[in-house]
Design goal:
Blueprint (H helix, E strand, L loop, with lengths): L7 E2 L5 E6 L6 E8 L9 E3 L9 H11 L15 H16 L6 E4 L5 E6 L5 E6 L4 E6 L6 E4 L5 H8 L2
Parallel strand pairs: 1-4
Antiparallel strand pairs: 2-3, 3-4, 5-6, 6-7, 7-8, 8-9
Length: 164
């Protein structure tokens, strides 16, 4: 995927998301605006401005996803919508602020974006961002997979679980 991002500039307040993680006592307030497609390019403005080196690959993957067009995989898969990209960007920023390493960020065949977090003892949590909801799926070698609808209040418990 080739990035086609023309601008990334912080400080454009449009959508506010706030959460607190128990372990890090950090508060993330994300302000994100995804502008409409013009000439096949998505312009993103907003966010925290400074990303950690820890998740630089995750942010780069996300920016590459923003440049996707419909049929990006040759299988007629739609590109992620503005709403999906906005929610994914906010979640990636929250995880980054919580100093949680993100294993991967990838597009899905139905226009979704998946954010994969891996922790200790072969545990992982996948956040799947759809236009109308965000789901999480917990994976462990010793427990059955668990899935549910994600909301910001669950972030602390999910990060605690994946890192135990």
């Amino acid at each position: 995927m080739q990035a086609s991002i023309n601008s990334y500039t912080p400080d454009i307040p449009v959508r506010n998301i706030q959460t607190r993680t128990r372990e890090h006592k950090a508060v993330a307030q994300i302000q994100v605006e995804v502008l409409p497609k013009s000439h096949g390019t998505i312009k993103i403005k907003g966010g925290l401005g400074q990303h950690s080196q820890l998740n630089k690959p995750a942010f780069n993957n996300f920016y590459n996803i923003c440049g996707l067009q419909d049929d990006w995989d040759g299988e007629e898969s739609p590109a992620p919508s503005n709403n999906v990209m906005q929610s994914a960007f906010a979640l990636i920023n929250i995880l980054d602020l919580a100093t949680q390493q993100i294993y991967n960020v990838v597009p899905g065949p139905r226009g979704e974006i998946m954010v994969d977090v891996r922790g200790k003892n072969s545990k992982s949590v996948e956040f799947i961002i759809y236009p109308d909801k965000i789901k999480y799926v917990k994976f462990s070698e010793i427990e059955a997979p668990e899935q549910g609808l994600f909301n910001n209040e669950l972030i602390s418990g999910l990060l605690t679980w994946v890192n135990q």
